[in-house]
Design brief:
The chain is α+β, with helices and mostly antiparallel strands. It is built from 7 helices and 19 strands. It is 27% helix and 27% strand. A hairpin with a 7-residue loop joins β13 and β14.
Length: 442
């Protein structure tokens, strides 16, 4: 009896351990990146979401009414006519993978933004089994995205959308500020914005929000540089900025957000690039010019095609761009061999960063000149002091030599004096009356 109870307890503990292990493995797998789905298969799965049932104004999770697949991303924008809002209401059921322990929708989720782009203001991300509230746009559009990770699929959701009149709409209709462009090279910038949009923004206090869509040939890249970049409110991203998106306009694909005093050059990873310019309030009046170039990427062991120029940086450009006064290669080699060597991308001497660089160069040159003059003056002074000291030492040495010669040369003495000074080492005084100094002589 006791042995059976022990066995049951051990079995229950083992079962609990296995359950915890399975949950832990599942959670770790869920947090891991999903394997990318084939684009054509993903497009087919997403049709329930991207198209849904237009006649009934319904949209569904992918593969509805079955469980949605793993590792999928679906996008859509719902837009109303002028003078209407978009309203979305979730019905029947809403069942997506629950949030993380921190309460974040990190695994599977439905993302909704207030606008027609992936960079529009985020309303929220929804997951779990709680129905989202009725969602109404502040303008004419809502942007939606459904994402699932690599594991644990649920049966998703069903939503109904409709368009409701905006009774407070008093602003006149104006087309969206959007440009689509392509080719081997071209210029874009604030000069493309119509007077209609500029006057509209000034008159009604609305921001300027324009997007340029640059498309290159399939599997080519796009190189963008900014020869002119002048924001009215630098370092204040609330009033003016330029954003670069690679392939899509969601925040995951945003590569740069320029709102300071410098806009860096950029090379895309895909053949579609979005450049967004935003200015509001004090930022209206900001200007920029950008030039884009279509690039063909090659391997180090490959050569550019016959109709392409090798930029010596694993990229090729169209040969028609050589010596066109624009540095289309990233390092400007396409303009180096030209006779005039000029460029239509000039150095803006009025730009703040150029002024700072020139001022620093001037200060460095002034410091170098001052240092050279100081060192020359110090060297001349030291050489003069050394010459004077050497001259004094020479004169002192000559004086000492002359004194020693005076001590050696003395007056000549008489023979008698010499005889009296030294006679076998003894002193013999001279006789008083002269003659031989001894009293007798042999």
């Amino acid at each position: 009896m006791r042995m059976g109870l022990i066995i049951q307890m051990l079995g229950a503990l083992l079962q609990g351990f296995v359950i915890l292990l399975i949950l832990s493995i599942s959670r770790n797998l869920a947090s891991s990146p999903a394997r990318e789905m084939d684009p054509l298969l993903q497009e087919e799965y997403c049709k329930n979401f991207t198209y849904g049932n237009p006649s009934r104004h319904e949209l569904y999770s992918p593969s509805y009414p079955h469980n949605y697949p793993s590792g999928i991303k679906c996008f859509r924008t719902i837009s109303a006519d002028y003078g209407y809002f978009v309203r979305v209401d979730f019905r029947d059921y809403f069942n997506i993978e629950p949030p993380s322990n921190e309460g974040n929708c990190d695994y599977d989720y439905l993302e909704i933004r207030d606008g027609d782009q992936g960079y529009s203001t985020l309303i929220d991300k929804y997951c779990g089994s709680n129905f989202p509230p009725i969602i109404t746009s502040s303008g004419r559009s809502l942007w939606l995205r459904f994402v699932s990770d690599g594991t644990i699929e649920y049966n998703g959701f069903k939503a109904v959308y409709n368009f409701i009149p905006n009774p407070l709409e008093t602003l006149p209709f104006i087309p969206k500020c959007e440009f689509e462009i392509g080719g081997s090279m071209d210029f874009i910038g604030t000069a493309n914005i119509s007077e209609e949009h500029l006057n509209y923004a000034q008159k009604y206090g609305e921001p300027i929000d324009c997007t340029w869509i640059i498309r290159a040939e399939h599997k080519k890249n796009i190189y963008v540089q900014f020869p002119k970049y002048d924001l009215q409110e630098p370092n204040d991203c609330n009033f003016n900025f330029i954003q670069i998106f690679d392939e899509k306009t969601d925040m995951e694909h945003r590569k740069h957000n320029f709102c300071g005093s410098v806009a860096d050059n950029f090379v895309s990873d895909t053949d579609v690039l979005y450049i967004r310019f935003f200015a509001a309030g004090r930022g209206i009046g900001s200007e920029f010019v950008a030039v884009f170039t279509e690039l063909l990427k090659i391997e180090d062991t490959e050569e550019c095609p016959a109709d392409k120029y090798d930029c010596d940086d694993t990229y090729c450009i169209d040969t028609a761009l050589i010596c066109n006064h624009v540095r289309n290669c990233r390092f400007g080699w396409d303009e180096e061999s030209c006779s005039d060597g000029g460029s239509e991308i000039p150095l803006d001497m009025s730009a703040p960063h150029v002024i700072i660089i020139m001022l620093l160069l001037f200060l460095i040159m002034a410091g170098m000149c001052t240092g050279m003059i100081y060192n020359l003056h110090r060297k001349l002074t030291e050489d003069k002091e050394d010459i004077l000291a050497s001259r004094e030492e020479t004169l002192a040495s000559l004086a000492a030599s002359a004194a020693s010669l005076d001590d050696v040369i003395t007056p000549s003495k008489s023979r008698a004096s010499r005889a009296t000074e030294d006679f076998n080492g003894c002193y013999v005084p001279a006789p008083p009356d002269g003659g031989f100094p001894f009293a007798t002589k042999n």
